[in-house]
C-alpha cells in the first residue's frame, strides 16, 4: 500500500518490537519447557522471533541512519590519481537526482516539531561513529540536511555531447568553485583534449594542478604558461597578431574603449585609425602588435612615409618619383591647416601623390589622418593612448609584443591555431588583482582571437595548412572569474563556436557581476541563454539563486494538521452529554522544488546542477587533495625551471626563483 507520507523522520519505534522479539527468542531457547515447547518447535519459534527482530530492527536502523544522515557534515576528497574519467562522460561527483520526494523530506526536516530528532541521542551518536565520512568538524558548513535527504547516492556523470552547449558554474568565494574547475580540467587533460584555462587572479593552486595533470597524462611537452604577473617565465603571445580578416585588429583594440554617450564617436574614429595602421603594417610585411600600434598612434608620420615609399616604388606610373620629389616645391601657406603642422617628408610624399593623381586605398587613408590639425588629432585618439601605454609598459610589453628574431629570448611564442592543431594545454594567468584593465583587455583580445579561429575551423576544418589528415579535437575552455573578462567578444564565442568543437565552462560568483560588467541586462540574458548546463554551489545573492530555481517546476508537499473538537448537548433525551473528535488531516501545498534559501545554505563542495536537458541533480564534488600528489610542483619557480629546462638552454636568471618565492609567499 502506498502512503502519502513516508514518515521517515520519526522515533525508531521498530527497535522496541525488535528488542521484544529478541528477548522472547532468548527465553524460548533458554527455557522451552516454560512455554510447553518440545524440540524442534522451540528452535522453530526462536527462529521466527529472530527473523521478526531482524526485519523490524533493520527498519529501525534505516530510520536512525536517515536521521543521522540529515545532520552529518561530509568532506569528500579524492587523490588526483583516483579521479575517475571517461572518453564519453564527465565525472562531477557523487549524488542523486532530486525530485518531489526530496523536497518533501527537506520540508519535514525543517519543521520545528522534528528538531529534537535531528539532535540525536547516545545510541545514534554511537551508530554514527561506524559510518564513513562522518566528521562534525569537516569545515564544510551549511545545512547538511540538504544532501542528507537521500541516503543512497551514486556517481553523477554528464554526457560529453552536452558540453558543447557550454556550462555555467556559480558560487560565492571559498566554496569549491576553483576546485571543481580542477576536477573538470584534470579529466579534459586525460582525454587528450585541447585545454585552455583563463585565470584572472592567477591562482597558484590552479596553475600547479594544471601543470601536474599535464605531467600525469604524459602531456608535459604540450603545456604553455602565459602569466602577466610573471613575464620572466611566461610564454609570449601577440593578441592582435593572428587574424582571418585585417579588421579584427582594430576591433580587438577599439573594443576595450568606452562606447557610451559621446565616447561612441571617438571609439569609431579610433577603430578607423587603428584599422588604417594595421592595413599599412600588413602591406609592409610587418605583423601588427601593441608596440607598433602604440608607436604610430603617437606619431603616424613614420608609418605613412614607409608605406608611401613602399607603394611608390611599386607604382608603374610613379617611376623616378624620388628625383621628382626633390624638385617638388611646396608652399606650406597654401596647404590645409592640418598639413601645415606636419613634417616636411610626410607632406612631400602626400603632395606628390595628390598632384600626380596617384591613388592607393591604404595611402589615401593614411594621408587623410594628416588633414587633421595635430593637436586636434591627438584629442581624437586620446582614449587610445592610455590603453596602449598600459599594454606596452614594463616587462609585460615583451609578452604581448614578442620579438621573434631575438635569439637570446628562450620563452616560446604561441598562437591559438597552433595550440589547437598540435593539441596544447594553455594556462592564462592575467594578474587582474594588479591591473584589471590590462587583464580585461588581454582576456577580451584572446576571446576575440579564439572566436576568429573558430570561424576558420568552421570553414576549413582542423589542420589547415598541415600535411596529412588532422583529427579534430574538442577544445575545452575554462574561464575562472569570467565576469572579469567578459565583453562583447564573449557572446559570439558562446553562441557560434559550439560547432567548431568549443566547449566553454565559465565560473563566477554572482550573475550581477556579469550584468555589471556587460552593462546591459539584455546582453547578460543573452549570455545566460547560451549556457545549457548550470551548476550552482553556495551563493549569497538571491537573484543569482533564482537563476536556477526559476527554471524548476512546482511540486506538492503534504503536511499533517491535528484537529480536535468537543461538542455537548442539552437534550435530556440523549444518553451522551458530549462528544469528542480527534483526527489528523493531510494538507497538500504547492511549493517550488527548491527555494533560493536552499542554495544559500549549501555546504562547501556541494552543488545543484541542471543536467541532461534540465534534470535537477544534487552533487557532492570531490575536492582534489594536493598534499598526496607527488607530481604537484612545490612553487611557481619550480614550474619555471621545468619549462626552461625543456628548451635545453641555461637558466640565465639564477636569482629569480628565490625572489619569486619570497614575493609570493610560496
Overall structural class, as computed from helix and strand content, comes to: alpha/beta
Residues in helix, %: 40-55%
Instruction: Please tell me the CATH architecture of the largest domain by its name.
Output: 3-Layer(aba) Sandwich
CATH topology of the largest domain: Rossmann fold
Mean pLDDT: 85
SSE map:
Elements: H1 14-30, H2 41-71, E1 77-79, E2 89-97, H3 100-109, H4 115-119, H5 122-128, H6 145-148, E3 154-159, E4 167-170, H7 177-190, E5 194-199, H8 204-216, E6 223-227, H9 247-254, H10 263-283, H11 290-298, H12 301-314, H13 321-326, H14 337-340, H15 344-355, H16 361-369, H17 374-380, H18 384-391, H19 396-400, H20 416-422, E7 425-429, H21 436-460, E8 475-479, H22 490-496, E9 502-508, H23 511-518, H24 521-528, E10 533-536, H25 542-549, E11 554-568, E12 578-592, H26 596-600, E13 606-611, E14 615-620, E15 623-625, H27 636-645, H28 656-664
Parallel strand pairs: 1-15, 4-9, 4-10, 5-7, 5-8, 6-7, 8-9
Antiparallel strand pairs: 2-3, 2-14, 10-13, 11-12, 13-14
Structural notes for this entry:
The protein has 666 residues and is an alpha/beta fold. The protein folds into 3 domains: 14-71; 157-237 and 402-625, Rossmann fold; 247-391, no CATH class. Helices cover 44% and strands 15% of the residues. The protein contains 28 helices and 15 strands. It has an 11-stranded mixed β-sheet with strand order 3-2-14-13-10-4-9-8-5-7-6, sandwiched between helices. Strand 13 (606-611) and strand 14 (615-620) form a beta hairpin. Helix 9 (247-254) runs antiparallel to helix 10, helix 21 runs parallel beside helix 22 and helix 23 crosses helix 24. The chain is elongated, with a radius of gyration of 35 Å. The two termini are 63 Å apart. 38% of the residues are buried. The model is unreliable at 132-137 and 649-666 (pLDDT under 50).
